[in-house]
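User: what does the whole thing look like in 3D?
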Amino acid sequence: MATQHSRSAARIMMAPAVFLLLVWMLVPLCMTLWFSLLDYRPMRGTFDCCEGFANYVRFATSSAFQDAILTTLIMVGGILLITVIGGIFLALLLDQPIWGQGVVRILVIAPFFVMPTVAALVWKNMFMNPVNGLLAHLWEFFGAAPVSWLTEAPLFSIIVIVAWMWLPFATLILLTAIQSLDSEQLEAAEMDGAGPLSRFGYIILPHMARAITVVILIQTIFLLSIFAEIFVTTGGGFGTRTLTYLVYQRVIESQNVGLGSAGGILAVILANFIAIFLMRIVGKNLDK
Amino acid sequence: MGRITLDKVRKAFGEVEVIPPLDLTIEDGEFVVFVGPSGCGKSTLLRLIAGLEDVSGGQIRIDGQDATGVPPARRGLAMVFQSYALYPHMSVRKNIAFPLRMAGLDAAEQTRRVEGAAEVLNLTDYLDRRPGQLSGGQRQRVAIGRAIVREPSAFLFDEPLSNLDAALRVGMRLEISELHERLKTTMIYVTHDQVEAMTMADKIVVLRAGNIEQVGSPLDLYHTPRNVFVAGFIGSPKMNLLTGPEADKRGAVTVGIRPEHIAVSADAGTWTGRVGVSEHLGSDTFFHVHLEGRSEPLTVRAGGEVSLHHGDTIHLTPDEDRMHRFDAEGLRIA
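Assistant: Here's the predicted 3D structure for the full assembly of 622 residues, as structure tokens:
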């Protein structure tokens, strides 16, 4: 009785928050859907109703769209690869008993607290600048010609910057996974004749599988919407235009709200497609 | 072959010496039980033999060969852990085959040995399950199976039954004893439960604070405990230990008498006391008898049918020949 009662009371208490969240989410989504069906170009004063799917067709058939999707996939994939492999490696290192463990762990996590814009600016001006950057000095020290990172390897540079920011996240989650491994299992494996590599491959890695899928899932969701890092470094040039950035260009730079909204909806569909796909993998892993 | 010799083996964690220099020989084929209260260093000693801990001094010899610096995998020993330490993502079959796979045995030989072990341990129906789908007793058997397939020169058991319920524990105790009868391999078994020690061991090693208090067969320890600690630790219920005038009378500082060596009578006896709590087990009844001028009650065993009630006055007569006498240092007076 009491539980039932408090449950319905709880529902009433939560209703305003739920309502607010729904409105918060649904209103922009509905507006985007609505705009995507219009020819809406505010600078020209055009606001014509009922264009149908013309915006979608225009957005999806432009060569920029296909390039953007490819760029997005390469960027997300590259960052995931670096953060997961690097995260496993760092987590293994941080799990070792070392002097000053606490401080080292905090330092490793630090990049995650740096705002994307700041991080990108720091990398752009302090590391990758071909004249004053640290990397340029390093190259010169070894007698090589400095590389102009953001023009010669722009996509790779952005991947490095974003991976640097997300590596701590992956490391942190994977470290807690490693720490939850029963040490008797490792000892048993050691008695069973497994060397360090076998112990990693047969015991530690399968134990981390769940954490790895969680890292991939969460990161993918956030990485699909990378914006600041591109805006600050290349401005979408040199083949670094992702889907998010393309939508931004259509809406703000071309002042074509209708076309941009159509792109936004396509991006939502793409993100959902990937999310469902990933959730299935995670679900399978969680079943084990 | 599995003859293990510990020669002045010492272990210290930093400043703290957990095991002072210790000598022990475990003969081939023996079932040796390390028993002692928690924190006495029995698990540490086992881990030293296994090679999971490095010794701080002394030498461990297996079959006469120095094994002190040899990594655990190459000592030819197999260990069963308290938490079973099964690999949760592998099936039972793969768990048992893991040491063979690591040793690089060919697939046919692996299958043969795994199926052999599964048959011995009644696991044939569960080979394709994962450890998470098994009961505690079955997991324990898988852990033993993983040890058997390696055909080690000795098995090490680290409190393997402490996570099981009482009924299962008795069953597994028998199974492990039977396994020892069949394999005739050296087994070293760590437990804090003296009943397990008494029922399974060929030889019991009683440890306290890293020191060996006594080594001997279960009945040796029962009949002639070397000191007060062993006397109080071995046997269930515990031996009654008396000090003061009763001990003085018999020329000792402490005397001990087991509950089963005290005769109960309604009208005459050496001691007189009042019955306190009585525990009826059916076959036996244990009375806690309060003697005059003694705070600790005396435990006395009587037949199952004796009807005595709380508050009754009874007379007790200890069997003087079976009285254990100890001196000021707690050592046995022969």
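In plain terms: The radius of gyration of chain B is 24 Å. Residues 166-183 of chain B form the longest helix (18 residues).
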